[in-house]
């Protein structure tokens, strides 16, 4: 077949394909109930792809790469990209979950930063994230050292520490709520539940969150520690390094990339804390701040859900979610770029 | 070349597969598939609802899924089935039984889709709407009316409207919702304990009567085996609906004429009646002071209920919806609902109203069939039997002669017969105010971090702030 015949065929395929897709989309947008519109769309898409593939230029076969990537890209687009763009769009409107009547520009963003509950949630989430990140990593690293040492039954410990992570946050929240409210108050007779004092309630969330997540992070540290080459450790012991020096000067620099990953994971996870927060306190207890009653443990994610669902202000909730995303992206990217500098290339 | 062609063909098939996968649900929308989707969603939601009854709920929802799927496959005898969205999972079975009977008699099929407790019902309805998959009949409450007001078909002229005080009317006065149950809020008492202490519940019509009764019971605690006088829970995270809605309801409507909306209108504007709020503060304080302190500041609904149902307290600040739970605790004592008489002035009625109503979707193509089905539920003997006896609810219809068998529902009947009830205006509070604002104030008051003046002032500023935010 010569190239001009190829050209004609592929051009015909392209044109027919585009036309078919246009017809199908037109039918869909005009609300037609024609059952064939899905089929027409697919046939059109296949014809277009065939046309591009068959068109005689140098790089036309590259379309194969795209076709193989397509299922993934399509799923990513439908579940992440499109909702994300819709979200940003809705944050600029007065959307109520069903319909929007007008654009309000940056009105929602201004309103958001004026609402004290959001600012409070912001501060409390920041505090929570920092403390939780530190505590989870310290506990996880300590457990990892234990599980890679020569202690008896280390495999059992490893499994045991990991188990809390297998339980869902909601269940865990209710279990621990029972422990704080019933068990602790009867073990220490006459005491009141930790969950009734604003500061202690935050500490309670920290305890449970660390308990839940440390085992998972421990696993990553264990993998890192096991990857430290034996010859380097041997050399250091020949040079007379004690356990502390080995840890500080050899192991920790060698697994710096593990630290990057773990700190990143805990940072993002603490910032997004929702299920535990919902089940354990759901924002309670309340505290008086500048003469106002505020929910003392309402973290950002919970605040966003409450704004959208319970206050029925979907656009404002969406706005908060957009800002939430931006902050999270900035913080975590900064952290990764700083940590990356500390890593050692083998 | 051949290899490449093969790979191109394979890739093409893959693309087609992907598109076909999405295409079938978005492009070629068949009735059956969307139905299966919705029931699936309901079943998932049920599983997520972490409640004691979760297991039961899921089982029920699975039943629902099975039955709807089966219904989708069968050819409907007359026309398409009516889709009925029920939001009270506990009445799922009686409703289905009635729907079946109804189909046998009229040939009209009705598919009941139930959503379980803890599900965000309004959000679910919005999802249905966005997906173009609205049920023909759905339940909504006055508090979510603003979201749904554009979707409701007028029901004016239906025969049951004259038969009830609780029909839901739109802003312009047309009836848009049919009530199916009446629920009551007051102070629920354990009659056996009161009898032993020599207190007549009928005298509990002023705050002074309550105070005297509480003092007397407090003095006889050991004798009666009481842990505390009342069972109250005011923790703001999980119990804000009890304080911020049901207790607040007393301030908003107790002693007011049903048509008098002045207090709720003030609240919507962000104002309060300070004098009344101050009396209300005394009432709340009285309940808090005589409550079990652990349950008061950290208890959940289950803790609160267990305390009362096990006979460890004489009173509980919950309404007649605790009836079905009494069996769980083997509670066999006599009980009833007394007025939440918060002031020195005598108030002899309880707060009773339809917590939710059934409305018809205005773009449904089966509005007349839906109206007939609702009418059958409201006026026929079988319908009343299903609602009152099988579902254990209090009928909102005057012509209904059936008496509920559960104790608290039965104790509401005299109030309703005498017209001695106050409206549930609390449903019209600014959306989410209990959870996001007033619940916290109640908790601070329960923890003694606020005194009476502090409570009144903070209520005033909190409500003002919240209304300004809306």
TrEMBL record, chain A:
<dbReference type="GO" id="GO:0005886">
    <property type="term" value="C:plasma membrane"/>
</dbReference>
<dbReference type="InterPro" id="IPR035906">
    <property type="entry name" value="MetI-like_sf"/>
</dbReference>
<keyword id="KW-1003">Cell membrane</keyword>
<feature type="transmembrane region" description="Helical">
    <location>
        <begin position="9"/>
        <end position="29"/>
    </location>
</feature>
<feature type="transmembrane region" description="Helical">
    <location>
        <begin position="159"/>
        <end position="180"/>
    </location>
</feature>
<keyword id="KW-0472">Membrane</keyword>
<keyword id="KW-0813">Transport</keyword>
<feature type="domain" description="ABC transmembrane type-1">
    <location>
        <begin position="122"/>
        <end position="335"/>
    </location>
</feature>
<feature type="transmembrane region" description="Helical">
    <location>
        <begin position="118"/>
        <end position="147"/>
    </location>
</feature>
<dbReference type="Pfam" id="PF00528">
    <property type="entry name" value="BPD_transp_1"/>
</dbReference>
<comment type="similarity">
    <text>Belongs to the binding-protein-dependent transport system permease family.</text>
</comment>
<feature type="transmembrane region" description="Helical">
    <location>
        <begin position="67"/>
        <end position="90"/>
    </location>
</feature>
<keyword id="KW-0812">Transmembrane</keyword>
<dbReference type="InterPro" id="IPR051393">
    <property type="entry name" value="ABC_transporter_permease"/>
</dbReference>
<feature type="transmembrane region" description="Helical">
    <location>
        <begin position="35"/>
        <end position="55"/>
    </location>
</feature>
<dbReference type="InterPro" id="IPR000515">
    <property type="entry name" value="MetI-like"/>
</dbReference>
<keyword id="KW-1133">Transmembrane helix</keyword>
<dbReference type="GO" id="GO:0055085">
    <property type="term" value="P:transmembrane transport"/>
</dbReference>
<protein>
    <submittedName>
        <fullName>Raffinose/stachyose/melibiose transport system permease protein</fullName>
    </submittedName>
</protein>
<feature type="transmembrane region" description="Helical">
    <location>
        <begin position="321"/>
        <end position="338"/>
    </location>
</feature>
<feature type="transmembrane region" description="Helical">
    <location>
        <begin position="200"/>
        <end position="222"/>
    </location>
</feature>
From TrEMBL, chain B:
<keyword id="KW-0449">Lipoprotein</keyword>
<keyword id="KW-0472">Membrane</keyword>
<protein>
    <submittedName>
        <fullName>Raffinose/stachyose/melibiose transport system substrate-binding protein</fullName>
    </submittedName>
</protein>
<dbReference type="InterPro" id="IPR006059">
    <property type="entry name" value="SBP"/>
</dbReference>
<dbReference type="InterPro" id="IPR050490">
    <property type="entry name" value="Bact_solute-bd_prot1"/>
</dbReference>
<feature type="compositionally biased region" description="Basic and acidic residues">
    <location>
        <begin position="29"/>
        <end position="38"/>
    </location>
</feature>
<feature type="signal peptide">
    <location>
        <begin position="1"/>
        <end position="20"/>
    </location>
</feature>
<keyword id="KW-1003">Cell membrane</keyword>
<keyword id="KW-0564">Palmitate</keyword>
<keyword id="KW-0732">Signal</keyword>
<feature type="region of interest" description="Disordered">
    <location>
        <begin position="21"/>
        <end position="84"/>
    </location>
</feature>
<dbReference type="Pfam" id="PF01547">
    <property type="entry name" value="SBP_bac_1"/>
</dbReference>
<feature type="compositionally biased region" description="Low complexity">
    <location>
        <begin position="39"/>
        <end position="81"/>
    </location>
</feature>
């Amino acid at each position: 077949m010569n190239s001009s015949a190829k050209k004609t065929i592929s051009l015909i395929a392209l044109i027919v394909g585009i036309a078919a897709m246009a017809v199908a989309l037109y039918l869909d947008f005009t609300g037609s109930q024609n059952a064939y519109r899905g089929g027409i769309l697919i046939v059109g898409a296949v014809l277009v792809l065939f046309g591009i593939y068959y068109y005689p230029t140098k790089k036309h076969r590259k379309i194969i790469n795209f076709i193989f990537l397509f299922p993934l890209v399509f799923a990513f687009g439908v579940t992440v990209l499109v909702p994300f763009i819709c979200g940003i769009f809705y944050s600029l409107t007065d959307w109520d979950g069903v319909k929007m009547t007008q654009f309000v520009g940056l009105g929602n963003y201004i309103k958001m930063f004026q609402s004290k509950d959001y600012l409070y949630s912001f501060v409390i989430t920041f505090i929570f994230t920092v403390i939780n990140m530190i505590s989870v990593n310290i506990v996880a690293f300590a457990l990892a050292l234990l599980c890679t040492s020569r202690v008896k039954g280390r495999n059992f410990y490893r499994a045991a520490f990991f188990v809390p992570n297998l339980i869902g946050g909601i269940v865990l929240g209710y279990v621990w709520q029972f422990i704080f409210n019933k068990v602790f108050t009867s073990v220490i007779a006459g005491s009141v539940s930790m969950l009734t004092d604003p500061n202690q309630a935050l500490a309670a969330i920290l305890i449970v969150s660390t308990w839940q997540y440390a085992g998972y992070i421990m696993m990553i540290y264990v993998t890192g520690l096991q990857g430290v080459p034996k010859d380097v450790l041997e050399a250091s012991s020949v040079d007379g390094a004690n356990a502390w020096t080995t840890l500080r000067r050899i192991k920790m620099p060698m697994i710096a990339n593990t630290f990057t990953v773990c700190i990143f994971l805990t940072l993002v996870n603490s910032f997004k804390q929702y299920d535990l927060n919902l089940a354990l306190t759901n924002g309670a207890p309340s505290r008086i701040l500048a003469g106002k009653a505020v929910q003392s443990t309402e973290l950002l994610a919970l605040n966003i859900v409450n704004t959208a669902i319970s206050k029925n202000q979907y656009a404002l909730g969406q706005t908060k979610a957009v800002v939430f995303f931006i902050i999270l992206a900035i913080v975590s990217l900064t952290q990764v770029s700083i940590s990356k500098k500390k890593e050692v290339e083998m | 070349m051949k290899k490449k062609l093969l790979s191109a063909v394979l890739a093409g098939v893959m693309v087609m597969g992907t598109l076909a996968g999405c295409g079938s649900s978005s492009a070629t929308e068949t009735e059956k598939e969307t139905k299966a989707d919705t029931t699936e969603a309901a079943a998932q939601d049920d599983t997520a609802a972490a409640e004691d009854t979760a297991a039961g709920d899921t089982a029920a929802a699975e039943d629902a899924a099975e039955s709807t799927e089966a219904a989708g496959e069968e050819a409907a005898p007359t026309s398409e089935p009516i889709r009925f969205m029920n939001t009270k999972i506990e009445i799922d079975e009686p409703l289905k039984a009635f729907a079946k009977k109804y189909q046998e008699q009229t040939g009209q099929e009705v598919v009941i889709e139930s959503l379980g407790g803890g599900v965000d019902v309004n959000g679910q309805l919005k999802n249905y709407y966005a997906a173009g998959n609205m049920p023909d009949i759905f339940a909504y409450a006055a508090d979510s009316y603003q979201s749904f007001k554009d979707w409701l078909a007028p029901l004016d002229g239906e025969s049951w409207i004259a038969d009830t005080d609780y029909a839901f009317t739109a802003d312009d006065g047309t009836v848009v919702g049919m009530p199916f149950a009446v629920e009551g809020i007051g102070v629920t008492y354990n009659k056996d304990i009161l009898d032993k202490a020599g207190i007549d519940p009928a005298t509990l019509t002023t705050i002074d009567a309550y105070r005297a009764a509480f003092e007397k019971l407090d003095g006889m605690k050991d004798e009666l085996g009481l842990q505390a006088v009342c069972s109250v829970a005011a923790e703001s995270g999980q119990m804000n609906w009890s304080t911020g809605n049901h207790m607040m309801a007393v301030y908003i409507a107790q002693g007011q004429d049903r048509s008098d909306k002045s207090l709720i209108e003030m609240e919507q504007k962000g104002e309060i009646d300070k004098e009344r709020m101050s009396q209300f503060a005394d009432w709340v304080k009285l309940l808090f002071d005589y409550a079990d302190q652990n349950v008061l500041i950290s208890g959940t609904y289950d803790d609160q209920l267990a305390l009362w149902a096990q006979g460890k307290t004489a009173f509980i600040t919950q309404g007649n919806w605790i009836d079905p739970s009494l069996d769980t605790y083997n509670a066999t004592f006599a009980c009833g609902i007394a007025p939440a008489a918060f002031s020195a002035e005598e108030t002899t009625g309880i707060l009773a109203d339809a917590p939710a109503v059934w409305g018809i979707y205005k773009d449904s193509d089966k509005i007349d069939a839906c109206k007939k089905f609702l009418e059958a539920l409201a006026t026929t003997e079988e319908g009343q039997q299903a609602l009152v006896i099988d579902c254990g609810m209090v009928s909102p219809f005057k012509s209904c002669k059936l008496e509920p068998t559960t104790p608290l529902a039965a104790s509401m009947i005299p109030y309703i017969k005498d017209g001695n009830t106050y409206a549930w205006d609390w449903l019209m509070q600014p959306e989410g105010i209990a959870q996001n604002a007033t619940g916290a104030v109640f908790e601070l008051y329960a923890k003694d971090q606020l005194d009476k003046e502090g409570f009144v002032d903070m209520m005033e500023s909190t409500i003002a702030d919240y209304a300004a935010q809306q």
